[in-house]
Amino acid sequence: MDADKTIALRDGRQIVFAEYGDPNGIPIIGFHGMPGSRVVMKVFHEVASQLGIRIIAPERPGFGLTSPNPSGTLASYAQDVAALCDTLNLDRFIVMGTSGGGPYSLACAYYLKDRVTVAGVVSGIGPLYVPGSLTGMMRVNRIMFTLGRISPALVGSVLPRLIRSSLPSMEKHVQQGTSSSDAIDAATFAIIVDDQRESIRTGGHGIALDMKNLWRNWNIPFQEIETRVLLWHGDRDDLAPTMLARYLAEQMPNCEATFYSGEDHTGPLTHHQEEILNALKAAHLAVPRPGTLPV
Asked: Which of 3, 20, 70, 223 has the maximal Cβ count within 10 Å?
């Protein structure tokens, strides 16, 4: 694992990112959840190293140490990703979004179709403007997302306070080498705690922007996404409703969806890492390079 890195964008903003896995491997640009940071992709480090995969984990505007961008959209973030990959001399790459990072993976699949070989969506949230989008979501999150539709800035203020208030109890588990959830092992839980702490390091600007982007029209014509999309979701997910995942899978003609029976929001991320990375790697290798003929 490398130390955190920074690139400067033309408008003066900076993107901070971390890298995990094999530094010489097949590149995957990994998008964190909401809230989240570059830290969460550390959960894939060991498996990625074994599979020859390099995971590049940038933070979205306003999260962690990355500069805020109040006017940012899904489309503009795809251009941020393009600038990052230009700096890293990556012409072709995989994108993978987990939870709240799912929409950004799809944005790259559409807006950067000449560079993205395959897009992964792991327990991803769907468009909240779809009728009934909050059905099946746990109560506290349903309240927060409902509030986010009315005032994204307010959620950007309230949610960091809630996270800060819960961090001491979570850190106690980390110190004891335990987890607060039976579904998450202690090592993964420690990464999640670090991720949540880092996500709000400079406040809630990223949360507010994500809320705004989730509720407004994504401006992604799902039926026109030519890039292959691989989607994984638990059928008992009460954070990113399964109904929205099925909606996305039905809208995208090149989508292959896997729904895990009896698994919740964290299940795909914690129980199926090797399956997910192997599938993304195989799909990437199956895409012929420009100027070559398929075998």
From this structure: 20
